[in-house]
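Hey everyone, long-time lurker, first post.

I ran two proteins through the pipeline my lab uses and got sequence/structure pairs for each. Pasting them in order. The first:
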Amino acid sequence: MPANSTVTGFSRERSESFGAPVYLYSSLSSWWLCPVSEGEPRERTYQIFASNANPGDCYNTQIRTYTPGAGHVWQYA
């Protein structure tokens, strides 16, 4: 985890639309997708940041979570 990372202040809220996803929120930040590779938008690799301002050439987004049917994922590499 990078230095100065925010690890508190996040919450989840269920939406009854779109298959009842649970949105991940931060009261102090928005979610940003920042490209780290070249190419067309759907071909790029992105890093996700929670920040109160656009950290650069990034796209604002929402994060939806779902309850897994089997097994649990706790980290992506």
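...and the second, right after it:
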Amino acid sequence: MGTAAMVLVSGFADRRRNRRRNLDDAGFMPWPLIQILALLATVILLALAAKGF
């Protein structure tokens, strides 16, 4: 559940970063990388949970 929430949060943050008004104010968080890693963790955890049934 936490990793799925992180996918949503990082997607929202990446969208905000791409739509910013001041192009020099980019920030330092690698949101696409965080989103991909959280999505991978979500898929792995769902697969492990499904294997248990």
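Reply from user beta_strand_b:
Welcome! Quick read of the second one: The chain is about 70% helix and 0% strand. Helices lie at 2-18, 31-51.
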